[in-house]
Request: fold
Amino acid sequence: MKEKSIEVKVGALVLVCAALLIGFIFVLGDIGGSSGFQLPIDYNTASDVKPGAPVKIAGVSSGKVTGVEYWGGKLDPKAGRRVTVRVLVDIDPEKGKTLRQDAQFFISTQGLLGEKYIEVDPGSYDKPLLVAGTPVVGVPPLRMEVLGQQLTKVSGALTRLLEKNEGVINDLLVHSDQTVLDAKKAINDADKLIVDNQETVKRVIDRLDKTGDKIDKLVAVMESAIGDGSKIKKSLTNVERITAKADNAIDPILADTRAATKNLRGLTEKLRDRPTAEVLLGDKGHGKVMGMLDRVDGAVQKADKAVDDVQAVTENARKGKGTVGGLLMDNELFMDLKLLLKDLKRHPWKFIWRE
Reply:
């Protein structure tokens, strides 16, 4: 009976230990499953972040890292980019719904040498919400070894620069000391000048005060003259109205001027290549004028010819040539004709009857 009691106690103890072990596994290992808001975050390095590392949003614990995968530059068709390291995080759904599309994901350290964790900046409130499962790009962590290497390079370059320009730097320091001494001397001289001319400086300051009072009075007078500025506003309004009317009046004038200039330019181009009369009268008018001028020219030529004929007849008459010349130049014939006319005047009946 006693042995059975011990066995029962040992069995109960084993069951309790097993229950505690299962409870610790559930609590520490989070075997309960995902919370529902998972995000893949892409980095160029994991920076020693491990599964189970906490995730904090604005410094508040909000989830944990569920996995770290090395992709090695493999293309993710969904994200449309190559991925080196992908960190999977599981975030509390209520807190995950506050993340925006411009949220930033940092790999930070708890303390100087503490464990790594994911710090999340939720983003701007005016941006759209971040959808669960959307691959995002994390901010690359600051790698101490890379920083140390860069600092080593900078330190080496600075050392070489100092060694190479040691003489120049010494001269610069000497000149700097001399410059400081000169500046100190100038300050002392200025102090001495002010002390020696205290009365003059005081008079200058008094004059400046009086000038300031006059300026204040002038400003007060101007303010009283201007008043609340209604008159000036009214004047500016009138000026704007007049300017608008002038603009409206100028536009038609400018349009007419442009049209006249265009026509004048076209006329000038025509005058450059064609006769002036043809441009001014047009093709039909120019043809009529030229025809009329041709007819006038023909009439003038005929008149010249008639004058030439009259001159020839007159010349022949003077020389006694032809009937008219013979009649005019033969005196005897002229006297007979004269006597005949007198006789006919005295005896007109001789026209109708002869003896």
Remarks:
- Strands lie at 37-43, 54-57, 60-76, 81-91, 104-109, 116-121, 136-137.
- The mean pLDDT is 76.
- The CA atoms of residues 219 and 225 lie 10 Å apart.
- The first helix runs from residue 2 to 29.
